[in-house]
Specification:
Layout (H helix, E strand, L loop, with lengths): L1 E4 L8 E4 L10 E9 L2 H7 L17 E5 L5 E5 L11 E4 L4 E2 L6 H21 L5 E5 L4 H12 L4 E6 L2 H9 L4 E4 L4 H8 L6 E4 L3 H12 L9 E5 L13 H4 L3 E5 L10 H13 L8 E4 L3 H4 L6 E4 L1
Parallel strand pairs: 8-9, 8-11, 9-10, 11-12, 12-13, 14-15
Antiparallel strand pairs: 1-2, 3-4, 3-6, 3-15, 4-5, 5-7
Length: about 300
């Protein structure tokens, strides 16, 4: 089969012919219809993901849509290295999540990973009447978080980011307010969230998170009202340093959401819900579909890429 192969972390994957994977331990050989390049895929392919998931040579790609031998079309993933989903074939377990009729394989492959990053924590932590702040709302995952918070019943959704066009798009997707990061952020957040923030979905960390923490400290809402901060991504920086008073002066609960922070079985019903919402048009994602043979030339494009063999 042909696949995308990482030979060294500093270079894009190469499209080349390699041996077919061999089914074993209850797996079957399925034809891959689409697999997306999520942020985690890029991190793994560059050797910068904290999981240390693979060493060259290997095929990247953590999830995708396959056609099983019996004709069913399912979303699946979790292939053991060195094989990944950016290939023509994959040895998968046949218990994948059915892709609803009418939903393209490209959209299904692209939307699950970024949507789950908010869908799962919202399912676990969103209370009725809550105000949700999405920090980093102008990215793919952040814009899906805005939509998911609305679908999950948030009373108020606030999008925060730096890209003006992206913030306008967040308003179109259901955000009640869009707040630009930078100078004056605390005042703008105070205006957008006069009664405080209950849940923060943080895709940025770094200086942006530090600014948001400081801004929350200045809100007029009672300091004893709990704010739950869910750290999901670190697009703005991997570390921050802040005064301990920031976490003592308010009822702030900080936790993380990512690989290793939850039971993988809990994701299964969430995946089905995300796919159904996408099929019904209630969750949308912008993507670019590309033939797998063009991966080396297109790998560095600033888009949500979906490769189709």
């Amino acid at each position: 089969m042909y696949a995308a192969v990482v030979h060294e972390f500093a270079s894009p994957p190469h499209h080349k012919e390699i041996p077919d994977p061999q089914p074993a331990d209850g797996t079957v050989l399925a034809r891959v219809e689409a697999s997306a390049v999520h942020q985690i895929v890029r991190l793994i392919a560059s050797g910068r993901h904290y999981s240390g998931a693979a060493r060259p040579p290997f095929v990247p790609g953590i999830d995708g849509v396959v056609r099983l031998p019996d004709g069913r079309r399912v979303y699946t993933g979790g292939l053991p290295p060195p094989y990944g989903m950016l290939a023509e074939l994959a040895a998968v377990r046949p218990q994948g999540i059915a892709v609803p009729d009418g939903l393209s394989s490209a959209v299904a492959a692209a939307i699950v990973n970024p949507a789950q990053s908010s869908w799962l924590p919202l399912t676990a932590h969103l209370a009725p009447g809550a105000t949700v702040l999405v920090l980093g709302a102008t990215g793919v995952s952040g814009s899906l978080a805005v939509q998911a918070a609305r679908l999950k019943g948030a009373a108020r959704v606030i999008a925060a980011g730096r890209n003006a066009a992206g913030l306008q798009r967040c308003r179109e997707l259901g955000a009640d307010a869009a707040v630009e990061l930078g100078d004056g952020f605390a005042d703008r957040l105070r205006h957008a969230a006069p009664d405080g923030v209950d849940l923060v979905l943080d895709y940025l960390w770094g200086p942006a998170a530090l600014a948001a923490l400081a801004a929350l400290d200045k809100l007029v809402a009672p300091s004893w009202r709990e704010t739950r901060w869910l750290q999901i991504g670190s697009a703005a920086g991997a570390s921050i340093e802040f005064d301990a008073a920031l976490v003592r002066s308010r009822n702030l609960r900080l936790s993380g959401h990512g690989i290793g922070s939850g039971d993988p079985a809990a994701a299964l019903p969430a995946i089905a819900e995300v796919l159904q919402a996408a099929a019904e048009g209630r969750l949308t994602i912008d993507l670019e579909s590309v033939p797998l043979r063009d991966i080396e030339q297109t790998w560095d494009r600033r888009a949500r890429l979906v490769y189709e063999p």
